[in-house]
Design a protein that fits this description.
The complex is a heterodimer of chains A (177) and B (279).
Chain A: E1 2-6, H1 10-15, E2 21-30, H2 33-44, E3 57-59, H3 84-90, E4 97-100, H4 106-114, E5 118-121, H5 127-131, E6 134-141, E7 150-164
Chain B: E1 2-3, H1 6-22, H2 26-38, H3 42-61, E2 71-79, E3 82-83, H4 88-102, E4 126-132, E5 137-144, H5 146-149, E6 153-157, H6 162-177, E7 185-193, H7 195-205, H8 217-231, E8 246-256, E9 261-268, E10 275-278
Parallel strand pairs in B: 1-3, 2-4, 7-8
Antiparallel strand pairs in B: 2-5, 5-10, 6-9, 7-9
Classes of the chains: A alpha/beta (177), B alpha/beta (279).
The structure holds iron/sulfur cluster.
């Protein structure tokens, strides 16, 4: 089990290998379908990104509402493949650490290696457990999207596994699309 | 004659909607624990252990098992001696709106598939009502997450495809779905009927008790064959390999046309949530 802190420098990112089991601590950002659309729109219009992409991790989740006294509700991953087309645009802009669930398409995997990016996964459907690893949550962009807004999460010992590494390692094996 | 008051129905349904999202039923928990004992792949064991721990945290701390608290699906059996002086669908939708807003559940419904504006209270529900004899109203509820629903499929096979054709199709659907529907999964398989009937009985199959068996011997044989074949795929928990791809297979059948063999596969993730109330 590797303990890592976010944001993450390039050397650490490049050293990760498919199958590595991680415990993540520090600051991560959330975003799913609707937020990704806006991030790509912002990029095309040369507007500022909602957070600095350099060394940052984006976590594909749309949490359930926080109960009073808690930072967040259940917050497990959503299926990553839906974010493939957006990730193709965002990786060259610097967003090179992604966390979600499930395998992704070939175009994404090829681009990931080209960009020396990494894709991490976390078990789906364990949102209650994961909510206990979040210390704080704050909306940083697109509050009108509700659960789909971009949140800044402070996490501790958030479990993840490296699914695709920067040199083409693939924990899902060889999937043909 | 059983006259049911609207307030009571709304309150009872809102209660099961909230509970279903927090309290995974004992049979699902038993299946998951058995899978954990039998799994030989180390990464898969770790995933199953997380899933078992998660449902305990959810129940004890009243946090949803999964943030995708789903589309609200109801199967209602309405006895002929039940009297309701209100619109049942409207009452069920009110219960859903109450439970999702007051219960801190995620609202995941958009009002139109293309304009995608959130309705903000998780309504409307998907409601199936069947008239039955008797004086009770049975309401079964399942929150259905999109991850697994999106991987479901239907095929209009021909009679010649038969038993083997059904197995081939189902295994192919599971393989293609891979890790996307959050395996270990439960499979609801509907065979026969028409295009829409097969899908409906497949969904209803997911509401069966996880440890029951089909009444019809042919369906039972298919359940066993599919269970073996699906668990031999090595898709494994979260698609990362292992012995545990499915927890259970439920087959429901219906008579069909001489020229047809519809097969619907409704995939349910390991968060196999459902509750019922009888009024
Ligand atoms: S497929 Fe099921 S467990 Fe996975 S995210 Fe969706 S609702 Fe949750």
């Amino acid at each position: 089990m590797l303990r890592l802190t976010l944001p993450m420098n390039e050397a650490t990112r490049l050293s990760l290998r498919a199958g590595d089991r991680l415990l993540l601590s520090g600051v991560i950002y959330t975003g799913r379908d609707a937020a990704h659309q806006r991030m790509v729109d912002a990029l095309q219009k040369h507007e500022n990104p909602p957070f600095s992409y350099d060394g940052s991790l984006i976590y594909y989740t749309g949490p359930s509402p926080a109960k009073p006294g808690r930072p967040i509700g259940a917050c497990g991953p959503t299926s990553s493949y839906r974010m493939d087309p957006f990730a193709l645009a965002l990786m060259p802009a610097g967003l090179r650490i992604m966390l979600g669930k499930g395998p992704r398409g070939k175009a994404f995997r090829d681009a990931l290696v080209k960009q020396a990016a990494v894709y991490l996964v976390v078990t789906g459907g364990i949102g209650a457990l994961l909510s206990k690893r979040v210390l704080s949550a704050a909306t940083v962009a697109y509050p009108d999207l509700g659960a789909e807004a971009v949140y800044r999460l402070e996490v501790v010992d958030f479990p993840a596994v490296v699914a695709y590494d920067a040199v083409g390692g693939n924990l899902y094996g060889d999937l043909d699309d | 004659m059983n006259k049911i008051a609207r307030d009571r129905l709304v309150a009872e349904v809102a209660r099961i909607v909230e509970e279903a999202n927090i309290d995974l039923d004992g049979k699902a928990v038993a299946c998951l624990k058995a899978a954990l004992r039998n799994e030989r792949n180390e990464l898969a064991q770790g995933i199953l252990a997380e899933i078992v721990e998660n449902q305990e945290i959810a129940r004890n701390e009243r946090i949803p098992i999964c943030q995708d608290t789903g589309v609200a699906v109801f199967f209602v059996e309405l006895g002929n001696e039940v009297f309701l002086d209100f619109n049942l669908e409207a009452a069920l939708n009110e219960a859903v709106a109450t439970a999702y807003t007051k219960g801190y559940l995620r609202k995941s419904i958009v009002r139109h598939p293309l304009d995608r504006v959130n309705t903000k209270d998780n309504t409307p529900a998907v409601i199936h009502v069947r008239p039955v004899m008797g004086s009770t109203l049975r309401i079964r509820f399942a929150p259905k997450g999109a991850g697994s629903e999106n991987m479901s499929a239907i095929a209009m096979l021909t009679p010649a495809d038969g038993f083997a054709g059904i197995v081939r199709f189902v295994v192919d659907v599971v393989r293609r779905a891979g890790g996307k529907p959050c395996p270990p999964i439960v499979l609801g398989v509907g065979i026969g009927g028409t295009f829409e009937k097969a899908a409906l009985i497949a969904k209803e199959a997911l509401l069966r008790e996880l440890d029951d068996e089909a009444m019809n011997p042919r369906d039972r044989e298919l359940e066993q064959a599919l269970y073996q074949a699906v668990n031999a795929t090595n898709v494994g928990p979260m698609g990362l390999s292992g012995d545990t791809t499915c927890l259970a297979v439920k087959v429901n059948s219906y008579p069909c046309h001489i020229a047809s063999l519809p097969v619907a596969v409704n995939i349910q993730c390991h968060a196999a949530r459902h509750k019922e109330v009888i009024l």
